[in-house]
User: What shape does this take?
Amino acid sequence: MILGFKTKFTDKILSGTKIHTIRKDSKNRWKVGNTIHFANGIRTKNYNCFKIDKCISIQTIKIKYYMGCGNYPLIFIDNRLISNDEFAILYRKDGFSCAESFCEWFNEDFEGKLIHWTDFKY
Assistant: This one.
């Protein structure tokens, strides 16, 4: 299956600093063992498949913005609220340099999946 990425994530994926991605999966398409085609420029003449790997594991993720909870959302992975320290690990391993940039990208309530191509899990 093809996973499209902004070019700013390509080097992070290839270097191993981005080790998972967060995606909606309303049709429950992503399964352990799926082949992942990492690409930029999907559906354009600039299509570039820059890596092929396997889906090693999947975890559910919920991002909830609550009034009065500070600047950052509450994040649940596999229905478990993660700590602030785990949040720091999450945004770095998802390719963001800081919590603020992660929250700009995911700027509203979200439910989806963490798609892993390494053995790492939360």
